[in-house]
């Protein structure tokens, strides 16, 4: 059966390359419901029968993200190493929430235990991308990295860490005054993170074509000043390198002084574009100022061929993430173990407070936040210890002596700069969910090994060549306008002098042709077609085919308009 599944996957990719499958599904809503029985079978069916149905029913209902003529959104790229890594990971099916749960899994992905910083895949990636030492666990004692599933999770974790840092030593109700800054081009996951984390104030600073749709430092400063004057608490800036709509680049180096002046956490989201930093000239042109960022995220599942889901987040001071996301060990005595420092310390804490364990942990009291809602989890630990009159501070390993909550001294017990990574950072302490699976680090590790830095650099150059090709074709055809400078493999264009509905009609015609799948965005109210060049299988011939389709559809549209038909 394993062989049949492998053959199936190989046949699938051959069909994609040979153009035997349309890139977009032509299915109508409810098609699968009608084709499948209403209940699961009582008798086991053969794997062959199931694979037959996958071929006959599932494949026609897919939009094929790995199709070489998939140019929509940002591609989410798989590759032979990532598929292999995924198959192995699925077979092993380990969970790596802590070192003891699966040592090789955590050492490949995420663990800082007993002075050993072992994030092999993430350290390798940081080197390849030329990240500054301040963000590299291998170079900076306070830094840490986490392989999350998605950029949205990474942003949420960064926001929770920022919230913990801003609220340290403040009152719980101050959380209502926190403000997040982004632009009207920032990915919607920023708003989602605000919703999830209970942030009430999100400033989406307006951008414009003249400024390349980038965040303006002066506008940020003015917004911060206005919020301070209104009694609010600036907390978090989300800058983007390579915005989703048009690959705008927020000027990180110029935003850093603003963020630092006001002690605001600066997160840099480079979900798609971050992979291009593997090219030194791209790094030089677009990735300046990262040494001043508090957190940085890139999605290897997008341009770096690792397959969904795989998002590498780097933090200048990982302890703030840990403070935001660590639950008291008394909640999970079953996880206490002696394999790492946190286990040992937790055990002492649990032993010191048997009543707490039996009845569940102490609820966060006034002056402390639950770990997920803001103030550092350290306070939660300390409050348990203080309530029982004994215990150990979870960060320092020192006996806890807890000042009254909310007092300035309580703030001082949360060091402004977290402890170094000499202290344990287990996966479970920095994750939003508890039991992450999928052994993502294996996929990343296999991609890095089987492509190598050179192979990945070639791939990025290839994407930039395809981008230049399409941009040149568009520039040479007077019917079209390239709307923003093409960047990171993304070309945004529209029909010159056209109405929004003309461009929407053009996109609809191209996509329904089955030849290519492109997407759109709105820039300054204009409907713009996006062509993202970066699929693993995409070659020049596929871009040419898409371009010919765009030309043909534009011609047909023009002819229909001249002929008096409304589109
Ligand atoms: N940030 C940017 C700039 C993106 O383009 C995207 C998705 O395309 C995201 C965040 C969300 O990524 P994810 O799906 O990994 O959460």
Automatic annotation (TrEMBL):
<dbReference type="InterPro" id="IPR015424">
    <property type="entry name" value="PyrdxlP-dep_Trfase"/>
</dbReference>
<dbReference type="GO" id="GO:0030170">
    <property type="term" value="F:pyridoxal phosphate binding"/>
</dbReference>
<dbReference type="InterPro" id="IPR015421">
    <property type="entry name" value="PyrdxlP-dep_Trfase_major"/>
</dbReference>
<dbReference type="GO" id="GO:0016831">
    <property type="term" value="F:carboxy-lyase activity"/>
</dbReference>
<dbReference type="GO" id="GO:0006520">
    <property type="term" value="P:amino acid metabolic process"/>
</dbReference>
<feature type="modified residue" description="N6-(pyridoxal phosphate)lysine">
    <location>
        <position position="302"/>
    </location>
</feature>
<dbReference type="InterPro" id="IPR015422">
    <property type="entry name" value="PyrdxlP-dep_Trfase_small"/>
</dbReference>
<keyword id="KW-0210">Decarboxylase</keyword>
<keyword id="KW-0663">Pyridoxal phosphate</keyword>
<keyword id="KW-0456">Lyase</keyword>
<dbReference type="InterPro" id="IPR002129">
    <property type="entry name" value="PyrdxlP-dep_de-COase"/>
</dbReference>
<dbReference type="GO" id="GO:0005737">
    <property type="term" value="C:cytoplasm"/>
</dbReference>
<dbReference type="InterPro" id="IPR010977">
    <property type="entry name" value="Aromatic_deC"/>
</dbReference>
<dbReference type="GO" id="GO:0019752">
    <property type="term" value="P:carboxylic acid metabolic process"/>
</dbReference>
<protein>
    <submittedName>
        <fullName>Tyrosine decarboxylase 1-like</fullName>
    </submittedName>
</protein>
<feature type="region of interest" description="Disordered">
    <location>
        <begin position="394"/>
        <end position="426"/>
    </location>
</feature>
<feature type="compositionally biased region" description="Low complexity">
    <location>
        <begin position="407"/>
        <end position="420"/>
    </location>
</feature>
<dbReference type="Pfam" id="PF00282">
    <property type="entry name" value="Pyridoxal_deC"/>
</dbReference>
<comment type="similarity">
    <text>Belongs to the group II decarboxylase family.</text>
</comment>
């Amino acid at each position: 059966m394993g062989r049949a599944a492998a053959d199936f996957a190989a046949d699938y990719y051959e069909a994609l390359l040979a153009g035997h499958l349309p890139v977009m599904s032509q299915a109508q809503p409810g098609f699968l419901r009608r084709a499948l029985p209403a209940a699961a079978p009582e008798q086991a069916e053969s794997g062959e029968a199931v694979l037959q149905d996958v071929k006959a029913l599932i494949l026609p209902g897919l939009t094929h993200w790995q199709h070489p003529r998939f140019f929509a959104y940002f591609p989410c790229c798989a590759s032979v190493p990532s598929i292999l890594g995924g198959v192995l990971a699925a077979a092993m099916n380990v969970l790596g929430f802590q070192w003891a749960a699966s040592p090789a899994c955590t050492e490949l992905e995420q663990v800082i235990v007993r002075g050993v910083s072992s994030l092999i895949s993430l350290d390798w990636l940081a080197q390849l991308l030329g990240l500054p030492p301040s963000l590299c666990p291998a170079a900076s004692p306070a830094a840490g990295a986490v392989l999350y599933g998605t950029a949205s999770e990474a942003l949420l974790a960064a926001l929770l860490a920022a919230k913990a840092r801003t609220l340290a030593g403040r009152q719980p109700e101050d959380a209502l005054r926190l403000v997040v800054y982004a632009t009207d081009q920032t990915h919607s996951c920023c708003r989602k993170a605000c919703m999830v984390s209970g942030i009430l104030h999100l400033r989406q600073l307006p951008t414009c074509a003249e400024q390349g749709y980038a965040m303006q430092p002066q506008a940020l400063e003015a917004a911060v000043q206005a919020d301070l004057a209104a009694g609010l608490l600036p907390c978090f800036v989300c800058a983007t390198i390579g915005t989703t709509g048009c690959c705008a680049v927020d000027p990180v180096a110029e935003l850093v002084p603003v963020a630092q002046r006001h002690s605001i956490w600066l997160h840099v989201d480079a979900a798609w574009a971050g992979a291009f930093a593997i090219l030194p000239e791209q790094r030089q042109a677009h990735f300046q100022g990262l040494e001043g960022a508090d957190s940085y995220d890139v999605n290897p599942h997008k341009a770096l061929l690792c397959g969904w889901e795989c998002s590498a987040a780097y933090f200048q001071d990982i302890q703030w993430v840990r403070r935001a996301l660590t639950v008291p060990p008394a909640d999970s005595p079953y996880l206490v173990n002696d394999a790492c420092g946190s286990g040992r310390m937790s055990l002492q804490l649990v032993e010191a407070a048997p009543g707490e364990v039996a009845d569940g942990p102490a609820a966060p009291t006034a002056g402390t936040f639950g770990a997920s809602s803001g103030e550092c989890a350290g306070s939660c630990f300390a409050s348990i210890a203080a309530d029982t009159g004994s215990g150990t501070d979870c960060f320092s390993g020192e006996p806890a002596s807890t000042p009254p909550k909310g007092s300035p001294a309580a703030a001082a017990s949360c060091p402004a700069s977290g402890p170094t990574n000499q202290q344990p950072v287990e996966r479970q302490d920095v994750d939003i969910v508890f039991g992450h699976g999928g052994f993502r680090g294996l996929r990343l590790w296999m991609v890095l090994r089987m492509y190598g830095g050179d192979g990945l650099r070639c791939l990025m150059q290839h994407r930039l060549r395809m981008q230049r090709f399409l941009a040149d074709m568009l520039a040479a055809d007077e019917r079209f306008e390239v709307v923003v400078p093409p960047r990171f493999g993304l070309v945004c264009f529209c029909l010159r002098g056209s109405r929004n509905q003309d461009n929407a009609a053009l996109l609809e015609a191209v996509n329904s042709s089955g030849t290519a799948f492109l997407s759109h965005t709105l820039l300054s109210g204009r409907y713009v077609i996006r062509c993202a060049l970066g699929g693993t299988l995409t070659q020049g011939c596929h871009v040419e085919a898409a371009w010919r389709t765009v030309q043909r559809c534009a011609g047909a549209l023009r002819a229909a308009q001249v002929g008096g038909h409304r589109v």
